[in-house]
Amino acid sequence: MSRRAAPDSDVDHVPVPVRLPEPGIEPARTFAAELVKLVTLPAARATVLGTIAVSAGMAALTADPEHGPADAASTVFGLIVFLQVGTVLLGVLTTASEYAGGQIRTTLAATPRRGVLLAAKSAACLMVSALTGAVAVGTALTSAWLVTEGSLLGGASPWRLVGAAVYLSLLGLLAHLIAVVARALLPPLVGVLALVLIVSPLLGGLTEHARWLPDRAGQPLYLPGADTVFTPWTGPLVLCGWLLAVGAVAALLFTHRDV
């Protein structure tokens, strides 16, 4: 017959070791999960590929070897206003797609630390937007150069091309944070696109204070002479100020409301 251990046996008092998660493991895993989720989202992949394809096509169509810019880089800088549509859409899709389908509840259940989750989503959005912007700029540059058969950069600094990619990624991040606040797809998408494509150009022709808008503040990153006050260093600081302000509101709402 089997013998049971006595209730006061030492077996009942053996301490069970508790393994605490190593610092940085949870944020890294959450970031990896959000990155995989974003790159496997069909709409996001279509946006990335579409942005790159449009950059190549528009560069080839607008590059004119006879009447257009003599260098390919100038053609690319003129296309940034259109390429920003792609990174804005990508930024909105990062979070809005989950709210639209209700998957955000599952995500919050799997990652209860909402601050970590928002940081991971933002980092994933920034990385994919940066890669999309860099590839789109490089593709447009190559396409324009093949058409014009002229100078690649002309007198432009290569850092202006880097600045263009940075501008596209930061604008995508701004759209993502606005989508977190709105918890929807269409309102932030229409709002940001209306700002950068309609409101900003109109206000730019009416008042000098339009330079404080996020898109116009970031333009010196790739157009150093776009503003008479902001430099390639001070303008992006204003854009980062917008990111910090909207990010603070997004973090406050994301961590305190129910969903």
Keywords:
9 helices; mainly alpha; 259 residues
Describe the protein's architecture and organization.
The chain crosses the membrane at residues 43-63, 75-96, 116-141, 161-182, 189-213, 233-254. Keywords: Membrane, Transmembrane, Transmembrane helix, Ubiquinone. It comes from Nocardiopsis metallicus. This is NADH:ubiquinone oxidoreductase subunit 6 (Subunit J). The chain has helices at 25-39, 42-62, 72-101, 104-110, 114-148, 158-182, 186-204, 214-218, 234-256. The protein is globular. The chain has nine helices and no strands. The longest helix has 35 residues, at 114-148. It has 259 residues and is an all-alpha fold. It has a domain at 27-194.
Quantity of strands, as a count:
0
Tally the helices: 9
Task: Tell me the major beta sheet.
Answer: none
Mean pLDDT: 86
Query: Over all CA atoms, what is the radius of gyration?
Result: 24 Å
- Based on CA inertia axes, which overall geometry fits? globular
Q: What is the CA-CA span between the terminal residues?
A: 57 Å
Helix content: 55-70%
**Unreliable stretches, pLDDT < 50, 5 or more residues?**
none
Category from helices, strands and their pairing = mainly alpha
Protein name: NADH:ubiquinone oxidoreductase subunit 6 (Subunit J)
Transmembrane segments: 43-63, 75-96, 116-141, 161-182, 189-213, 233-254
Keywords: Membrane, Transmembrane, Transmembrane helix, Ubiquinone
Organism: Nocardiopsis metallicus
